[in-house]
Design a protein that fits this description.
421 residues; alpha/beta; 29% helix
Length: 421
């Protein structure tokens, strides 16, 4: 456009100069030349202004991109740079703007190079739908590996992942089942010897057991058996700060030993039958309403009452407590020389012997209490007192139908004591 303006002005000057006189033509020519120069400078300024204001009028024009494609069809990281580069332009102080124009031209050429590279990259990425994803694949594998390690799975594919997941679920299920079994104490009772030891937790056997020996021990938690225990040899139940509870029978050919501190012992079944019964409690009551049958009976506690409703004595029976009352019902004595000893302190006592009892007796308390011996029936039994004091009774009970030489000794303090035969 600037070239056309200059050309038209020159033609006009030549035409006017040729048609006039020499002097007038020369002056007119000089005037027109100055006008043309002024027009040329104005045109140059206009061109520079257009170039600065609108890049599309530059001599080298960048290709127009209608829409910037940030996401490629093929997977993987894109190497394409954004179209609008904020290039740093340095002005070197030209008053006519030529230096700025040159810088803009270099910048525009730089855009052309970038777009050319971008075009090549796009061609490589999209040509025939092929894409080299080796780098991206390796990166994905590393991420998958890290994710796998975090989740606890070592799978390398979805199928193996499902397999490992199933395995993990199976292991978790087994662990949960094991934990539940441990919590409910659903133990393997097939062995001839059962030995279960726990600490600071409950011990619970959910079924009956039979075998040669049984040993159950815990502390700071209840010990319970939801069934019977039957041993050809012995049974031991030990606890501290927790109850010992048997829902059914306790049977052992040799010995049953129960030891508990600060916890009760109770049997809700029909009987406790053994050769030797040893119950040793501390600071807890003993209350058994089942049949207690043993050749040797040793039942002891401290600071707890004792109540036994159905006792069958073989050779020896010792029952002791302190600072608590005692009530014992002995229904049968199998040995003709059985010895029975029952003691307490600072509490009353009541002992009942079978009407067939025959042997010696001794009932004693101190001066703050009274002693009493009486017969439940006078038909076959008779009493003879060797000592008949208020706080002490000694003598012999004879039964016409049963000849025996048993012995019973009952003692307390600061309370009354009574023997019923």
């Amino acid at each position: 456009m600037a070239t056309n303006i200059v050309s038209d002005a020159t033609n006009t000057a030549n035409n006017h100069g040729g048609g006039g006189g020499g002097g007038g033509g020369t002056n007119f020519s000089e005037n027109m030349t100055r006008s043309v120069n002024e027009i040329s400078r104005s045109a140059s300024d206009l061109v520079n202004d257009l170039l600065q204001r609108n890049p599309k009028y530059r001599r080298t024009v960048s290709p127009k991109i209608e829409e910037e494609d940030d996401g490629l069809d093929a997977p993987g990281p894109s190497t394409r740079m954004p179209f609008h580069h904020h290039a740093k332009t340095t002005s070197k102080g030209g008053s006519d703007g030529s230096t700025d124009e040159s810088d803009h031209s270099d910048e525009n050429n730089h855009h052309d190079d970038d777009d050319s590279d971008d075009s090549d990259d796009d061609s490589d990425l999209h040509q025939n739908g092929n894409y080299d994803s080796s780098d991206s694949s390796e990166s994905d594998d590393e991420v998958a590996s890290v994710t796998s390690n975090i989740s606890g799975s070592t799978c390398a594919s979805s199928s193996s992942g499902e397999s490992d997941s199933s395995s993990n679920e199976s292991d978790a299920s087994d662990a949960t089942s094991s934990h539940e079994a441990h919590a409910t104490s659903d133990y393997d009772t097939s062995s001839s010897r059962l030995e279960l030891i726990k600490s600071n937790s409950p011990l619970q056997l959910n079924q009956s057991w039979s075998g040669s020996s049984c040993y159950l021990k815990t502390n700071n938690g209840p010990l319970s058996v939801q069934g019977s225990l039957s041993a050809t040899r012995d049974i031991e139940l030990i606890n501290t700060n927790g109850a010992i509870t048997i829902d059914r029978k306790l049977l052992a050919s040799d010995r049953i030993r129960v030891q508990n501190k600060n916890g009760v012992f109770s049997v809700h079944g029909q009987s406790i039958i053994t050769n030797k019964l040893d119950v040793d409690l501390t600071n807890a009551p003993i209350n058994l309403d089942c049949i207690v049958q043993a050749t040797y009976i040793l039942i002891k506690t401290k600071n707890g009452p004792v109540r036994l409703d159905h006792v069958s004595v073989g050779t020896e029976c010792i029952i002791k407590t302190s600072n608590a009352p005692v009530e014992v019902h002995i229904l049968d004595i199998s040995s003709t020389s059985a010895k029975i000893q029952i003691e307490s302190s600072n509490a009353p006592m009541n002992v009942f012997l079978p009407s067939s009892y025959s042997g010696k007796f001794s009932v004693e308390t101190n001066s703050n209490g009274s002693a009493k011996v009486s017969l439940k029936s006078n038909e076959r039994s008779s009493l003879r007192f060797d000592v008949n004091e208020n706080s002490r009774k000694e003598g012999t009970c004879k039964n016409s139908n049963y000849k025996a030489n048993c012995e019973v000794n009952i003692k307390t303090s600061n309370a009354s004591v009574s023997l019923y035969i």
